[in-house]
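Weekly sync notes, structure subgroup
Attendees: PM, AL, DS (notes)

Item 1: joint prediction request from the bench team. They want all two components modeled as one assembly rather than separately. Inputs as received:
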Amino acid sequence: MSGEAPFRHVALIGLGLIASSMAHAIRARWPEVRITGYARSEATRNQTREIGFCDAVMDSAAEAVAGADLVVLAVPIGAMGELAAEIAPHLAPDAVLTDVGSVKQAVIDAVGPHVPTHVHFVPGHPLAGTEHSGPRAGFASLFQNRWWLLTPEEGVDPAAIERLQALIAGMGAKTDQMEAGHHDLVLAVTSHAPHLIAYTMVGVADHLSRVTESEVIQYSAAGFRDFTRIAASDPTMWRDVFLTNREATLDILGRFTEELFVLQRAIRMGDGKHLHDYFTRTRAIRRGIIEAGQDTAAPDFGRAAKQDG
Amino acid sequence: MSGEAPFRHVALIGLGLIASSMAHAIRARWPEVRITGYARSEATRNQTREIGFCDAVMDSAAEAVAGADLVVLAVPIGAMGELAAEIAPHLAPDAVLTDVGSVKQAVIDAVGPHVPTHVHFVPGHPLAGTEHSGPRAGFASLFQNRWWLLTPEEGVDPAAIERLQALIAGMGAKTDQMEAGHHDLVLAVTSHAPHLIAYTMVGVADHLSRVTESEVIQYSAAGFRDFTRIAASDPTMWRDVFLTNREATLDILGRFTEELFVLQRAIRMGDGKHLHDYFTRTRAIRRGIIEAGQDTAAPDFGRAAKQDG
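Output from the run, pasted for the record:
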């Protein structure tokens, strides 16, 4: 894929997993793009300077965004409003402003009022991540084959959206646009409620005194392991996700507990047919995901068996 | 690792994922071991003959176990009692009888009464599996670095247990012994309840009409994907697991819903501190699992990013 970069200068505000991965991915594709960065923590700024994925790490957000034609807000959702107010006077004319927050309506509500008329605000959300945090966690292929959702409000310049789409495509991801409220509901189902459920299961295991922690850990290959991976996600990010996507999350959790009680009752009453029918139905959804290319059917996810003791 | 095989002739009753993987693993380690097999379905017997991981596939369980010094019951737990009654008269003197069921007390209750005094019954459970079923699903490395739990009752000949342990070690797994009831509780925490929860989450997504099925599937890399993989497990096996490990599973599910309501309430009330503290605590359990060697910390589980569109 040839062609010049859609942006000259990208400013990353927040330098965690997502921002650092964006930097690595952009540099791999378009080494000529200038990348500046800022993070609130001095330690993070210094680590980023050591790693070197920014051309310059500034000591203020205002300095980092000066002259940038794309500004990426990659901080916890709860910090976005204040940040937007701080940088607004320093955004270049015609700059594109985006974010990578996991909830969209709350970001629009917090950031929107501060966006100058000469700036194009295109909120976004890359559906990618690992359990690790911080500038050292980033890598260039994080977004390969992943979805990056955009939720611009009506009236935003389509050319600005296209430039952002081109950048995202250059990082290997696929884009889709949708209304912010719809995004938040879909993510409540596919991500937010599952995360809370995973956190809860790990918490239950943690409390159980009759089952030792070492057993829970040792024998966790049996299904629990997947939950713990989800439950190791960044606590600050997830606190903000649940607080800002509250209604949709509570909706899904309510449905979940209703569903769980039906199955629990079937178990208590020994209704094997009910269980078998239910489990058969859920297998079909799994097949759909493999077909959609969002996972692999290779045994053990294609991992080679580990050889250590 | 040199040394002769701990068994001369292994009979596999049931020819699904676990049995076929055992055959592949045993053959890789000790090609001289005779392996006979039987499955209730003629189609399965024929598929197994095609694949060729048994020296002979018989048309009855009795024929398959004749002369075997190890007999493995690899059928759904609900079928084990009847099977045990059927093969009991045909078991060789001094044969070791084992199973691979995910629940131990129910297997002991169903099978135990049929075991002749000259046969050594050592119930077992390999903590390994994939979402696939059937004879074609098996592969030799399934048990590499996994735990295989044994729950022999008191008085079983230690030499018989050791022979089985040697076979398991030859297939790459680690063994541990415990009391059957304790096994069932530990597995309720690490496997059974998590599976039911995963099934439930997938079921909720399935019902939701405001969110199209394609979106749930498309955007499922965000956490939901892990649930669907768990929820694609064999429906028959899991029906029997829940029906036979009922008390322990209901215990854990009850604790789970109590815990979930606490978090749900924190979300409704905007208690960010509670959420942050809880999520921070669960991260520690994840670290413990990586250290115990039961998973990898490599980004994206060490999977190379997929390149398809």
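Discussion: Chain B touches chain A through 116 residues (CB under 8 Å).
Action: AL to compare against the crosslinking data before next sync.
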